[in-house]
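pasting input
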Amino acid sequence: MNVRELRIPLGERSYPILIGAGLLAASETLAGLAQARQVAVVTNDTVGALFEARLALSLAGAARRISIRLPDGETHKNWQALDHIFEQLLRERFDRRCLLVALGGGVIGDVTGFAAAVYQRGVDFVQVPTTLLAQVDSSVGGKTAINHPLGKNMIGAFHQPKLVLADVDTLRTLPPRELSAGLAEMIKHGAIADPAYLGRLERDLAALRACDTTALGDAILRSCEIKAAVVAADERETGVRATLNFGHTFGHAIESGLGYGNWLHGEAVGAGMVMAADLSWRAGLVDDSLVERLRGTIAAAGLPVRGPAWPFERYVELMSIDKKARQGAPEFVLLERFGAARVQPVTDAQLRATLAACTG
Amino acid sequence: MNVRELRIPLGERSYPILIGAGLLAASETLAGLAQARQVAVVTNDTVGALFEARLALSLAGAARRISIRLPDGETHKNWQALDHIFEQLLRERFDRRCLLVALGGGVIGDVTGFAAAVYQRGVDFVQVPTTLLAQVDSSVGGKTAINHPLGKNMIGAFHQPKLVLADVDTLRTLPPRELSAGLAEMIKHGAIADPAYLGRLERDLAALRACDTTALGDAILRSCEIKAAVVAADERETGVRATLNFGHTFGHAIESGLGYGNWLHGEAVGAGMVMAADLSWRAGLVDDSLVERLRGTIAAAGLPVRGPAWPFERYVELMSIDKKARQGAPEFVLLERFGAARVQPVTDAQLRATLAACTG
């Protein structure tokens, strides 16, 4: 498999995404960025044991290289993890020209990216996502954040990486649940923006779940292209970018209500997309056949298609703290058809019906 | 005294600084920004008791207004204060379209500005500085930060306010030490960028220390103009903006070594400027008459002109953690003459001589 390159066009903050097999150990682009700089690789014990030695080969030219290990899991996407990074950087006297490298999944990427956004008011960082979800989701958009006890991703910044390295070899050791969680976001990209891509994903699901690197490389590239097109049109998330939150209002409520880390983010989004599609049908935007097709695709990807059995009020309470809420009256990203989504408020009755039909 | 207006030109992030007497209670610009929004006024008990009721008159059109009180002082410019803001905003369900208003000195402005930079990845904020230092220093530049136990201002962001309201009436209740601390930064502006302004400050020192609002209004405007010109040329602090740190490498070392809050920031910068001028002389850039004149002006402003009696090694240790350090070998902002400064490394011997001459 060749290296595929996608350039994210953001003026002086433009950066490349490189997708390929074996990139960790042999990236000239990363080597060039790290040359003669203070470099901190931020990872966790699991991912670090698997990949940090390989990555170190691309970082051989650094003036200094340190390793910072964070505890694993969404429950640790918090201030303590962030402060652990700051403390290591300050103890090692890293200055504002240093480079942070996030080696891991979405939690590592989000925390490290936010640390880079605010350490000495902003330093450079590189994303090396090692999960499918992170390769298609965190690679594009520059969103970084930590969770607050009162809400997910409530504290963060927009901070673009200098480079994203998506090495598909890292996906071979990924647990099947995590691979499915990545597929959820890819299905989302097809559903909201590209029916042909959705069709290809449906056709290739078995190959993707079997970790076929060519199928994965194609799909990762297409997902990054779709997300990049949306983000380039709306970097600060004031308009069309909100459609990327398809399935996420429900999904965040599920994650928040279960406690972060019980369902994977992609699993919650899987069920959330079915709920959002059902709501689109109840709002009169789509046929029920679309809902059924999406439900089937999500199930075939190995993802849940129903939310937890909570009362209506519990869901509403969990959703209203979500940052997509507008003055307490949540709007939803709904499908108009496969390939087109929009944000609109729904009635209380429509929301009740969807929750009754799609949970428990 | 009329309202003076200075516009900070930063493209789509441009904003006005309004300087005048009585602005708090009667700002149409602030009223327009607050109209129909969720507004949080962040202040401390001392400043809040003096001015929050007046400010509320300009915020009457807000959809909702809450007050968030932080503990007073530089020692509280930390994560706990930041998290207190986040917690109030989340409990009150403030969304990303809310407006934060920082009412207070530099600590309130820095913490509130940083909270605004990262709450839900960035919300609008207004600076209402109530100290002379904050009116001339924090009003321009978009720098926000909190301290870390291992270093001052180590965690922060560049985040521009939507408006700065500098009401000179608030300076009437300011303790004389705090007024002098503000004069330190103004003297700095004259020293590095405008000899005529330095001369006017020297001439008007008595009026300024007596809180003459016209003299203060003139000087605040000129200081903001100077800082704005430097910042506009170099928003991200990669080049000429570093000259604004004249006196600050020594000053931060003094603050850090004494424990934040023992000397005021402006007091530490006062002594730091004398040290930096002395170092400029030892580096062969200026005559000793310049050093003596600056020392006299700083003393006449009611500021210390000597650093604490610490050994050379203690100063070096305190300065090397400072973020102006480059790989452990600190550079200094030195004067070439009044009106021109530049960054350059100095020899160990020059630094030793300055510390021997200007401390204890």
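fyi The interface with chain B takes residues 63, 79, 83, 86-87, 90-91, 93, 95-96, 114, 117-122, 143, 145, 148, 150-151, 154-158, 236-237, 320-321, 323, 325-328 of chain A (CB under 8 Å).
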